[in-house]
Amino acid sequence: MHTQQDGIEAILAGYNVDLDGFGGTGKTWIIKQVTDKHTILFAPTGISALNVGGETGHSIFGLPYGIPTQKDLDNIKPHLRALFKGDSVKRIILDEKSQMRADHLDLIDYKLRKIRQVDKPFGGIQVVVVGDLWQIPCIVTADEKKYYRRLYASGFIFHSNVWKEANLKTILLTKPYRMEDEYQVGLLNKIRSKLDGWEEAVEEINKLCTFKATEDTLTLCLVNADADKINLQHFKRNKSPVVKYAAKIVGSFNPKDCIVEPELKLKVGLRAIICANDASPEKEYKNGQRGIITELKKNSVGVMLDNGEIVQVVAHKWETTKYKNGLKGLSKSTAGTCEQMPIRQGNAISVNKSQSLTLDELSLDLGTARPREATTYVALSRVRDLTTVHLVRKLTVEDIVINKDVKDYYDKLRGE
Predict the structure, then answer these.
(1) Strand bridging mode 301-305 / 310-313
(2) What is the per-residue pLDDT for 256?
(3) Looking at residue 136, what DSSP letter applies?
(4) Are 317 and 338 in contact (CB under 8 A)?
(5) What angle do CA 360, 365, 370 make, to 5 degrees?
(6) Are 260 and 275 within 8 A, CB to CB?
């Protein structure tokens, strides 16, 4: 298939690029290598925009929360016109493409053509879409579906009107950097897309997931409510005093997009998961590390990591980004900030909230409900080694749910 260098070269050569690959193949690293002062980064959701260091599609392009109407097509605000006038913006990078809807991508295309008065895809601006279509999909609500199907074959961006016209060069990354065991990578790839032998792969994964969970093991759940229930049980059993940390939110920052709770309630002795890298030169802790809270001070949280080290976690500042096109060209500024202790209670989280994490171990509780598309794969791909996964119940073939439209798309891509 392709290497990271292939991806960099295709982007720098000016092609419209579809940068694809399963989790841990280095897509984010490539984004960092090609982002310059003429590049705009955006993503469909607030959390994914924070992770990539860009804006949301709603913030930049005024994307609606449903199917665009004529009013949405005509609503081109002055800041959007100012941002894309001239040649300051030469490249747009969309991350987490699986969550971007077809109608919203077409709306972006329409607005850029109109602003730039260039009848080419995206007004002639280079576009790079990044992600893995086998991961968490975009949402088209039940109420929208009867109208949506009149317009598009599915919600995925490859069914947008602009997709084929943009003539994207596909770069498919296959070399793993998170998980080193090639046999395990092969098993995950089989359940990711139901390749030949995927049912046998389910059984092999059941055999590999031999980890014995303890009270300290992080549990991934299908829904937030199940994770909240587990966390609350541990919280109530802990009799230490509650210490609260309120986030400092400044400017344009939606509290719902905060990586952690805007109001944290912590206790000494609770399990914790760190949700940001240490910004100091010492780099004492990193995103995804887990441990036990040892002390709660006004300006820091003491955590004994699972490797035995004790670190002082301090407030982290997450920023929402705003792009502006001025006399000196494209500039990037801070629209709002959320400053909070980068800590979550580390007993349970939802699979969706685990997407940016690499974990040393986990317990997977799929419950009794049928998992959403891609959920099982996303959960298992959080770890470096499947032998560090505990399954609350064994996986069944019913737990592997994929989208037929995505499968058809990749089959055509491979010429099958």
Answers:
(1) antiparallel
(2) 80
(3) S
(4) yes
(5) 130
(6) yes
Q: How far apart are the first and last CA of the chain?
A: 16
156: left (phi over 0), alpha (psi -120 to 50) or beta: beta
Q: What one-character DSSP code corresponds to residue 99? A: G
Q: Which residue has the higher pLDDT, 283 or 109?
A: 109
Q: Please give the single-letter amino acid code of residue 295.
A: E
Tens of pLDDT, residue by residue over 168-225, are: 999 999 888 878 889 999 999 999 999 999 999 999 999 999 999 988 889 999 888 8
Is 144 within 8 Å of 66 (Cβ atoms)?
yes
Query: What span, in angstroms and rounded, lies between the C-alpha atoms of 308 and 361?
Result: 16
Give yes or no for residue 47 having a pLDDT over 80.
Answer: no
DSSP label at residue 308: S
**Structural tokens at position 254:** 């939606």
Q: How far apart are CA 185 and CA 367, in angstroms?
A: 25
Tokens of 85: 């006038």
- Could you tell me which residues are beta bridge partners of residue 334? 321
CA 51-103-105 angle, 5° bins:
45
Closest alpha carbon to 3 in 182, 186, 175, 176: 175
Mean pLDDT of 237-253: 94
